[in-house]
Amino acid sequence: MGSPVRAYSCTDCGKTFKRKGTLTQHRLIHTGERPFACTLCQVRFTTNKYRENLTGEKPHVCSTCGKGFSEAGSLKRHLRTHTGEKPYVCHHCGKNYNDSGNLQRHIRTHTGEKPYHCSECGRNFREKISLIHHQEVVHTEHPHRCDHCMKSFVSAFKLESHMQTRHPPNDPLKKPHVCSECGRGFSEAGSLKRHLRIHTGEKPYVCPRCGKDFTQSGLLQRHMRTHTGETPYHCLVCGMKFRHTISLKQHHLKNHKGETLGPVRMHQGPLPCPHCGEKFSTKALLKGHLQKTHKSRVHCPQCDKTFSTKGSLLVHQRKHTGERPYLCPQCGKSFSLTGSLKLHLRIHAGEKPYCCTYCDKSFTSKSHCNLHLRIHTGEKPYQCPDCGRRFRDGNVLKNHRRTHTGEKPFQCHVCDKAFAQWSSLKKHQDTHRLTQPVSVPRLPNPYLPHNQHVPYPYPSQTQW
């Protein structure tokens, strides 16, 4: 069976569609046209799905789990998660899928098709998420800004989704300033003026150093940091400094997972901490700082490491106990975290959604992709406080620091000799294998994240 013909192509981005109506709907993203008006407040939308937000009605209910849906088609797709039905078959390799969209994405691995086009640099991508990741990493100046909360986005589509979920339509009388191009309303004339630049292409804010121009002063200020080197955002956990809030957020997700403390700008705001004098802009940030930095913490009895919550401690203790309660149903490999299992399952599925924006190499996780990107960019964000040497990977820095501190955390369970590096302990334990049939415990690999430890495969006594 041949793949369906996708005869309708978008002249703006090159994306193709099977139906003319789907292309017409897609074109609204580029034109900014909003043909559907709310009957209550006259705010306009690109689709008529806004009605779901008005009524909240979900008449189509799953008989198995009780989940409701606004459309019958959505319920039909959902039911396949219960029945296991996979009616969509790849004609290249025979693999089955429960959704046509998943099949289309899979077929691109055979055809090499890259339908997602970056309007900034012209690069094409196989997955939409890869394009979004590329825009966030390479084109860091997000041109589409929300006039309500000033949050910025890489695409008009993401901005519109944000508007519909975070700022639903209100009384039109409260937004008297209406855009004549797309019908969007604003509460202040200044907000409308900024918005109109999206349609006119006007960029009145010019960088005095390189001549690059911007639609908003905030975008120019962020750009100027590339020249000045200013890093106004810092991590309250480890003290690392960043140029942009999004970089700090990514740092938190990668290095301090489970911590609830958000990004904080240095010396911003009138609220000082009574203990250390650090200033904060809101009571919530000050409260988070107090809980994180000055509140009593729970201690690990094995290594004396401290944690802000009991849940974080329980997860950490699996490193000592070796407990791995999450089992892969395909190969039997076990993991200490559900997130690690999800990443592992992508290996079986062949799924690598995160693509390098420089060489098209793909990865199962965003963190692995970000680490790889530093090979191209030369970025080494981790600096040794003792000698100033910089590293791409935080784990490599941890190992390096032991050359200064003399710490030797890896101990041989046969003779109690200690080592600074896991690889050194491995070599040492080989000497015991040559002299006596001793069962050597499995050791965690410090070069991997703690949730992806690979046991060192020493044989037991019965295998000698």
TrEMBL record:
Instruction: Please tell me where this protein is predominantly located.
Output: nucleus
Q: Residues in domain C2H2-type? A: 8-35, 60-87, 88-115, 116-144, 144-172, 177-204, 205-232, 233-261, 271-299, 298-325, 326-353, 354-381, 382-409, 410-437
Q: Which GO terms describe its cellular component?
A: nucleus
Kindly list the biological process annotations in GO that this record carries. regulation of gene expression
> Would the keyword Membrane be found if you checked this record's keyword annotation?
no
Positions the record marks as coiled coil are none
Q: Name one GO molecular function term.
A: identical protein binding
Q: Which family does it belong to?
A: Belongs to the krueppel C2H2-type zinc-finger protein family.
Q: What is the protein named?
A: C2H2-type domain-containing protein
